[in-house]
Amino acid sequence: MTVTYVIMPKLGLTMDEGRLISWHKQEGDRVAEGDVLFEVETDKAAMEVPATTSGFLRRILAQPDAMIPVATNVAIITTSADEPLPSGDRAAPPASVGWSSPERVVASPAARKRAQELAVDLATVVASKPPRISIEDVEAAAGARPAPAGAGERRVPLTRMRKAIAGAMSRSSAEAPQFKLERDIDMTNANERRKPFGASYTDVVVSAVARALAAHPRLRSRFDGDAIVERPSAHIGLAVAVDDGLLVPVIRDADRMDLGALAKERERLEAGARSGHLGMDDLSGAVVSVSNLGSFGIDRFTAIVNPPEAAIVAMGRVRDRVVPIDGTPAVRPIVTLTLSVDHRVADGADAARFLDDVAKALEAGD
Question: The whole model's pTM is what?
């Protein structure tokens, strides 16, 4: 007979706790390894957590809406339905947080934690769905407080995703000296290449970036204290705009995909990012990212490197421009790619050679 404790997993390098959204199994249910057991919200997305063993879900130790520290027991699975459970197996409830008579306030653990973060007195919060106060009620109360100065100002509390983005980008700017290179690229042949696959311009750029990495180990490396760590993969992050933030799902081994498969994987990841349902592997492991703001009418821009990646490619819109071809003016679809690089990992010449290979592949339609 075996007793297995299910813990809150660490679903990202910066994750120290997660909000348990819902259980997909109930106490007493038979569970097979790989079955979705529960769903967790991190600072990046909602993720489904599978069972790592088979058996019976004998006891649930954490309830929906609770903020659970990483590695905390949340359930017990046993190999038989009537196996004796160890004593003292119930998890202690999360500590209450509040500012005025918290014992008289009915609020979710997540709402209590948010109240502490925003210095909101739970006794002053009105529940939108009585009797339980939700995290949204706390944030609404925080936003409704009068600003200390400035008529008409409204204080909007940061979401967990916005906090994570702010922290990551601040660290990137402070810790990683960055430089940028720009290149205008003729997309005539790339356009012809993508059409039979129903692929986008983003897809052909991702493909070119991934394949170019094979000859440029510095651009698929990361800075690690007193060493530079070269990585063998060509996993490409794809910046996707979502409500109040940005997610960077990862197209794994993009260099090995044809354009049709790459386009389908991009569409899957974009849909998962916007619905908030991506797996842990979908959000980790990128060596270089691609960000495209062309659909917003942007011609060129500079993106910030997303550590521990070494570089990011910013892609503007593809638009017709007049360019000289053998001394004769011609109209061609041109895109500007801007490569931002962590200067600790690579120098200008390394980055220039990499961007040149990307440009040549696109212009040749390879």
Answer: 0.67
